Batch of 3 targets.
Target 1
Amino acid sequence: MNLTRCGREYAAPILDILNEAIQSSTALYDYRPRTLTMMDSWFEGKEKDEYPVIGMVDDAGRLLGFTSYGTFRAWPAYKYTVEHSIYVEKNSRGHGIGGKLLGAVIKAAGEQGFHNLIGGIDAENATSIALHRRYGFEHCGIIRHAGFKFGRWLDLAFYQRILPTPTQPADG
């Protein structure tokens, strides 16, 4: 297994992983599967803002999972904070891929000078919460009944990891 930067050539396998998560889990508070056209816009945004998409591929080049981050909130004072997400292909879960992806996204965020990495996690997702805690994330809040999916209210828990970067933060 190898980490790799994912470009648009990975749009279809990323789409498969996302759509499976949308349809079968509360990892995304979304109802409708995404399309390849939507993925084009997603990649365009990542490229414009220089947010990496990092994948884990097997020896045959098959995508097993991916991670990325994006804007946490759109106001300028949040410029050092990003929100990440990690998705692992359903048949590849439980093999340490999530941890490797989380380590990679932490490293990438630090290299880009971000200070705060946020994860919004369904409060019942004990596996993701445990993973984030292992990598130094701390619980920093919960929004009760933030979403409604599968006939029930969902609580959204926030976890954060503060990074030692940037070395010279500035206003503006």
Target 2
Amino acid sequence: MAERIHIHCSFDTRMSPDGVIAALTDFTGRRTELWPNIDPAKYRIHEVGPDWARVTEGNVEPDIWALERYSWGPDWLSIKAEESNFCCVGDGTDLTMTLNADGGSHIELDWEREAASPAWEPVMAMMGEQGEAILTTAYRDRLDQLAAGA
């Protein structure tokens, strides 16, 4: 059985908790502009409710996709895979945000995945070794860019 990888990271961003939630739950046609790592060819909106959504998203490289259920509140977000070519059903990412004194956010992020097949085990192993830096940089940098109006 493949190893389950759990990554915990925390970081600060200039974006407020409300802004973080808004950016991460913008399921409009501009989502792939907000999050350029999402492959527009894989992006599909299935259903959107007031505090949940079901969407398919993926990257070009590596060639991954997942049908995910997003659930959120004012200071938290949970993303869980319902189907995926690279991870198991129920795997996902959980974020909690707290307001910093400067109006930005402190974010606690937990990413947990298990390879859906042996082909994805090297990617998961790499995430186990480098995932904290990859996730921190990807989320913090993009949220800071969006907070700055980029």
Target 3
Amino acid sequence: MDLSPVKREILEAVLMHDKPVKAAQVAREVGKDFPPVMMHLLGLARMGYACSPEKGQFILTDSGKKALGLPEITKENAAAIMQHVPRESAFHFYAGIGKPLNLYAHSLQDFCDKIAKVNVESVEFHVSRGDFESWFACLGDAELAKKTALLKERKLAGEELCRRLLEIVENRCIVLSKMVGHSVPSA
């Protein structure tokens, strides 16, 4: 079933959270009034795209992720996404065009560790160009690529962009590490 643009936008807002999110927060994030957003969320729950573990809170289901075009992740996919890559496939951080930082991320966990230390200028540069989402897609993580693209669409900047990106990547590392049975170093 095709989603209306409004339902898609609401589902994408819920996707950005890896834990149940209040309907009021979703309404704020999409810039719409609470009552219609709540009605859409209830409809999405009836469709099986979201569920409500607590009254007024929603989280995406696997069907919801599929409706957004995201593939299901298996233990094998998770392991492939988390693996170490050679330098030529590593993420190379820059502060701008022709301004390499000589800093490389060789895995998603390595990226998570380094993104916390990279300056705002570098993060904004890479987000504006779609570099992070492209690298995540190359690792095989369509969901993380989608979340990063949504950060760009929301036009986040500065410290807020850095904070949200770090939060998204850290949460993704935790989820994938649990799937493959590894512990994740705490931030």
